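Forum: Protein Structure Q&A
Topic: Joint prediction for protein chains with partners

I've read a bunch of threads here and the consensus seems to be that you should model interacting components together rather than docking separate models afterwards. I'd like to see that in practice. Below is the full input, 686 residues plus whatever partners are listed. Could one of the regulars post the assembled result?
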Amino acid sequence: MPSWIEQSAHRGLLTSRYPRVPASDAEVPTTARPPLAGPEGRAAGPGPDRCPVGAIEGVAVDQGRCIRCARCLADGFRFAGAVESSSPSRAALARPAASDAGPDPRRAPLAGLGRSLHLFLVDVGSCNACNLELLALANPLYDASRLGLFFTNSPRHADVLVIVGAPTEEMAEPLRRAYEAMPGPKAVVVLGACGISGGAFRGNPGLRAGCDELVPVDLYVPGCPPTPVQVLDGILSLAGRGRGDR
Amino acid sequence: MSRIRWREEPREQFELTPDRALAYAAPDGAFALYNDYRSRDSVLIRRPAPVLPEEVDRCWREQTEGASPRGLAPRETVEGYGTFTFPYGPISMGVPESGRFDVVTYGERVLELTPLGAYKSRRALPALAGLPVADAGLRVERLAGNFAASHAAAFLQACESATQTPVGLRELTVRAVGQELQRIYNHVHVLARIAEAASQNVGAAQSHALAEEMLRLQGRVFGHRWLFGAFLPGGPARRLEPPDRPHVAAALHARAEEFDELWELFLDSRTFIDRIQSTCPVPRDVAVRWGAVGPTLRATGVPWDDRLRIPEPPYHDLFLALPDERDGDALARLLVRVQEVRASFLLLEQMLDRWPAAGAAAEPPAPPVEPGRGIGRVEAPSGDLVYDVRVSDGRIVGVAARSPSQANWPPFAFGMRGAVFTDFHFAFESFGLVFAETDR
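Posted by a regular:
Agreed with the consensus. Here's the joint model:
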């Protein structure tokens, strides 16, 4: 009779070697990479009606608003930016350098906590995809606990508040209370276009334009939804764990 | 169980007049224990403390009487010694989404449970009016990310019926492939979450790994891990043409074997099966009367599946076995899902085998309900999903949707009556409920 032990041994090691080796195409599919203007850099670019969320202005793509629908590929844009695309500044996301260079250097508010970070998830109006992508970090293919990341069930034990979703009026107060319940030093990460800018639901009545209207945000991880690798990279950067020294 | 009394109609409010309050109040305590003569029950009444901090007061009132959050299931009044309402949520890591459950209890047993949505309502459906069909499709997919393929397929089906646009068989097959892939992912995810709740750590890790492998396969085939935009014009490029199709078939074959091996081991674990057997039972008559759909309904022995009952192409041409379970408990729902995972692997095999030729005749859409208005109906992973869309000049006029989660909240609330707190996660996960889907 087979057993769990035999089965696990048979399946072998599944875990990604991610921060040590670059992310593979399997981990980050095409559309998860940030869209950039094509090499020819068509200045005319698409009109506002081509981009369904109005993320494109000229040849600049606001990464915080882009929902990765791939429609602008027909206008010479391409999903080619660096996999690691999180940024501490909303303005930098809105006007990224039109090149394949990585994002600007990031702050590390939790540098003192080094190798142990506890994450608390707050959903303020998501479609469930960002939630599942964050929780996917616990599965054996990413195994975030090998990097010292853990999920906690209470904001009192949390170092990082992870917010997903387009912020609704109803969740503004619970979010503020969760933030206040956290001990310092603490950091706030926003995952996905909805939390950064309202994403596909921007402008709907009863929605805030972004989570930064409610709590101070330390890091934005763009995407719709960002892949677990991108989330991992963003959260590690909060602790000052850059790409070389993990 | 039999000692719990249920009442259908709301109980009259017992009026605590000042003289009664004085008569019954304990001289020094904050609480007064007194007899309600009409019901002959001892009840515990919370006497308002003279100086209650405003914040605490507001928190309690908002938690239980807030105007905005609305109940998603019929609520019954439960009374008795020591009963109280325990609000669970809206933020709780036990349920990764935001939503609240009002639990009426006197301690360990759940007497009544009311799920409340609308904490995370993005008011998505009314905002679709005026948008072109493809732009509205992008928002419809993001109603519930893990059911994106089903939502997109049902929505497009409704729009095509409204505008009487024929669709190629190949395009319909691509949609079916996406839906079946996502069904497998969701069912495996449910298995993983239940295993997690039962502390089957190795099993949970292995099933989460399988679910992640399904996501990666979706990413490889459709360019997006959650199939956003996959069926819409101008979406990410798909890899379903030769030479990719044989690779996809091989990957699916490997995943199917992995799943069978995994489920064999779960069946070996008596503690796991015992934990979900007879947990949160929904009897057949309740499931039918309260309008349950999907695995919840099929687990009670009602063989309704949109893929068989209203078979749209390509399903009309494929073999699909219906699961046979009748107990209606969490185990029966899980067994239905397991059989459906196998059925989906078989469906995918058939679809990849009989890939329609590029020149296959376009399929006529369903007749519109009235000019410019169509219904789309697909079997989402959690059950029957219906879209009712009105379109004019290629733009959306109005959208109404009935999602499987909306239909399955009431049976879930019913099944929780009489359960204990620790049953919550097994019960909740076995229904595959998503708060985001009840968005309006």
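The beta strands of chain A are 35-36, 56-57, 60-61, 78-79, 117-123, 149-151, 160-164, 187-191, 219-221.
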